[in-house]
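Intended use. Records like the one below are meant for learning the mapping from a protein sequence to its folded structure. Do not use them to infer anything beyond what is encoded.
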Amino acid sequence: MLANETASPVGEMLRNAQRDQQLILLMVILNVGNVVNMSRRFMQGGTLSLLYVVVALMIVFVSWYAYRQRQLIRRLRQGDGATYGHLRGAIQQLRAFSHNKLYAKIAFLATVALVVVYGKYDAIMHSLHSGLSLPLVAVGIVAGLGIVAGLLYWGQRRQQQRYGQHLDQLEAALQELEEEK
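Structure written out for the chain above:
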């Protein structure tokens, strides 16, 4: 089950991880282009530098995440039939890694939002004082947060479909092997 079978759960997870890495590369390229384009129009000085630092940190984190995820999945193939502890530990690490990804996404989005608010604080305050309706602003913020929460939920469900079901299969196979002992 752990060998080089293409239909095995480990093989499926490796293929999913490779697809994710390709998608991540495309998203990084698009985001860098977007940040450069937006920053030329709307931001200046220290805020621009801060935004570049945040984006650079995002690229480093995403690259590390993709590398570490594939490394953990490959680690599953290194186990032999007698190392239940090794396989259980690797499965637990992958599950924890997957859960922590959600928290990292939330932290990154909050950081980007804070950088944008910091950079546009004067413009935001000017708009609020010039007669912009506070309830309208509140509705916009709630709608934006709802969309972000929906996307995060969808991403987490997608992650579970792409990796969780395969980890469940591996755990079930381990359980069967332990019961046969």
